[in-house]
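Operator note (shift B, R.M.): manual run for Cyclic di-GMP phosphodiesterase Gmr requested after the automated queue skipped it. Running by hand, logging everything below so the morning shift can see what happened. Input copied straight from the record, untouched. If output looks odd, do not overwrite the archive copy; leave it for review.
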Amino acid sequence: MAMDNGAATCSEAGGLSAIQLQEQVDENLRYAAAASFAGVFNALIALVVFWSAALALPLVLWGVLVLIGSGIRLLVIRLGDDKTREKKRWIEGIALYNGIVWGAGVAAGAALASPAQYVVVVILCSGMMGASVTTYTSMARAAMLFVIPVGIGGLMALMIHPIAPTVPGIALLGCYMILLASGAKRRQSRFLERIWARDHLARSSATVKLLLNDYESQSSDWLWQVDSAGIILNPSERFREVSGIDEDMPGHMSFLDLFDESRGRDILKDHIHGQHPFRDLTLRLTIRDEPHWWTLSAQRDDQGGMRGVAADVTAQKRAEERVRYMAHYDELTELANRFLFNETLQRHLSKMAEYPAGEAANHAPDNQLAVLCLDLDGFKSVNDTLGHPTGDRLLAVVAQRILGSVRNQDMVARLGGDEFAVLILGNKAAERAEYIAGRILETVSQPFDLDGAQVATSVSIGIASWNPAHGAEKLHGPVNAATMMKQADLALYAAKEGGRNRFARFERQMDIAARERRDLEMDLRNALQNGEFELHFQPLINIETGQTTSFEALVRWNHPERGIVMPDDFIGIAEDTGLITELGEWIIRHACHLASNWPSHMRVSVNLSPVQMRSTGLVATIFSAIANAGLDPSRLELEITENVLLHDSEANIAILHQLHEFGVRIALDDFGTGYSSLNYLRSFPFDKIKIDRCFVTDLADSEDCKAIVRAVTELAGSLGMTTTAEGVELESQLEELKVQGCTEAQGFLFSRPERPDQFTDLRGTGLDAASDGEPANLAILKLASTKPDTADDTEGARGPAIRSA
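Run finished. Output pasted below as returned.
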């Protein structure tokens, strides 16, 4: 606040120093040349636009006036540095002159302008006004001396020209001038604040330097003196104060007795007894039960003793120890940090790797080693709902519970955030790892009472171990901390994928899968540009009539080396990397384009993933795809799962309402496999519910499945929704679905997902070329085999974004 007030005072009172005023003028003149050339260039444009034989003389005269103003502005630059205030007056005078010239030009030009020429007048007027705020960046008055005349000319232009919107134009121009005035004032204020702050910093630096010099002249160090036997002689008041010794101390107190036993004390003893000079010897001593550190320097005196200077460096030592502690330990939990953990792990690995191959087995199992990587489940929700202080408290308590689950020789560290690690050493560490992991799972899963708030959480754990008898083969690579941590991370990822609140041990297949995932990710980034994706379609059949009502679009990746890659192998990668948005847009647009050529009663279904729903451009993409394809919005059906509604449900439901109001149909996919909350059906008017294949598979033999399917169909019917059963493969399943009142069926009984050219209608036309205006009963005839040889290519293997994507 002091800086702001000071700057304001300077600017308002005109109390700038000569140097500061010089900088203000120089800052303005820095733009003078560019502004002058720009003004001349704009004038040339105006002359070209308005040139005619009848107007030649006034145009030339006006151009000359512009050149004069620009020339004088350039000449001001050449004035001497001792004429700063004169320069400032010239700058302001030239600004007013140029403003009058341009304002008159704008008014006169508007009076003579055609509609097209009037547009040029408006552009030049607004452009020159706006540019002046930049060119006069440090001088608000100069900027306004230019803006006001030009603005007056603009007002006259609005009143003169017949096509000008006079009242709105005057209002807009007035607002524009006010904004320019405000902007010019702010830019000048910020410039002056920077000058003041710089000068204030310079003055402060000079003051600090003066104080430091004064401190050095009155040093707080003190003198000490000992005889040849090391007995303290003539201790000063300052010496007594800092050492804590009494005034009536015995006259034969040894200087060495002040210091704690250490290597430094032995060195001091040798120097005193040998009468060797020394410098900057730091020793530890205890004063009033607290540790202190002194730095000593001394020379031999004429009496055979030593004289020297002592300085208390306790604060410096404590600061160094604090820095050293912070570099190796986590401040919140007081556990080792990532750096210390990795350093310790690498040290033990290197030591174990030194055993010759023939001796390694002799040292096992006493020298085994295991690493546990831990990650709290749901920690983010604790932070979000209860606040960061509670989250920090939870981390500290979890750290203590982990410490209570391991042995004293084991090492626990906080790697960052909600990630922890445990290093298990010694006897049968690899076997003990699972036991310790189980103990940690049990103790962390117990509820926490954090300042009256009951918090329940769990932890997922990944385990990697190494036995020196196995050598580097156990790590499948170099013996180093990075490799072991990577393997423990992969195991942790597997534990989370397996349902959380569990542990998993690293297996070689995890590393292979991770490498394959990285390779796929690299290929995936180029797949769209290379046109490697294609859509397959699977029909949905009306159970009552046998008609095909729609096709579900299912994406496939035609990899140049791997062949067809199924969605389960790449959709998750696309979602994690953000590529799903671009891929999903391609699918939506391509599906709409193909569907636009189908019979008018035929719909296309496209799945949306939760990641796509978070895209700000989703609605615009869908609207654009429908418009570009010329598709009736009701022929596009978007399928979502309950996961879309679990997070940001209000925002997602708002998006669904926007799409639904446009005419797009919305279906709830995989109903029955998630929470199956009836509140979802209440919060949004879905057009369709899709019954998951798990209820269809055992439908013919399971009364439970029949009851569930019947309940879903009745519920959907009462809410005005249709139902589609997925994964229908048998006639018996189809018959039972018909009995239970299901509307549509989808599955291998009718067709597996295929390219659009693999389907024909009764006229033999491919699905990708079918035309409108023919009978609505489109019977699907497969060009390839109707029944699949395997169940690999099922719609159940679509993945969440095939389905979106």
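Quick read of the result: Residues 222-317 form a domain with the Beta-Lactamase fold (CATH 3.30.450.20). The two ends are 55 Å apart (CA to CA).
Leaving this for review. - R.M.
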